[in-house]
Amino acid sequence: MAWPGLRLPKLPTRDALLTQAWSRPFARYLGAPVLWRWNRRGVARGLALGLFVGIMIPLVQSPFAALLSVIARANLPVAVVATFITNPFTTPLVLYSAYRLGSLVIVAERANPLVDMSQPMAWLETALNWLATASLPTALGLLTMATITSVAGYFAVQLGWRWRVGRRWARRAQARRNTALAAGQGVSA
């Protein structure tokens, strides 16, 4: 079902991408047909990889997703587009949620140290100490969130694809029955 007035940007085709100067050294790998096929397994792998990379890696997500999709033989466009689950608007929420989730798993010290401004560089030491205590829960939370979302995305594509194909088969079977029924009624009348 398409929404009226919705115009999606056109993604480059495989051939257009491979003719770019920057992609010529990688054309052998990026040109593999399995990376561009729209099938259940490839799309599910691409979504899972894109979600995992999108949450785990804060910068330069698309090249990492493309590299992993080549290695895992996943759908490359889906992997790259799925990395945009995190963007400048959602990243603070993702990082805060990851910190809270990681703090549930690891009991982190929650005391906020007071900054001693009489020392020339005390604020820097306090900030680095806070960063060191917050980084482990955040990293663990990011890993947990990335794993859960990628597994959920993988199985959602698998189940959704199977449901859609099953529904199409049921419609075709019903259409064949209706056609056979109509043809049978026309003969006896």
Automatic annotation (TrEMBL):
This protein's record includes keyword DNA repair: no
Annotated DUF2062 domain residues: 24-169
Transmembrane segments: 47-71, 78-99, 139-161
Pfam families xrefs: DUF2062 (PF09835)
UniProt KW keywords: Membrane, Transmembrane, Transmembrane helix
Highest taxon of the lineage: Bacteria
InterPro entries attached to this UniProt entry: DUF2062
Keyword Metal-binding: no
The protein, known as: DUF2062 domain-containing protein
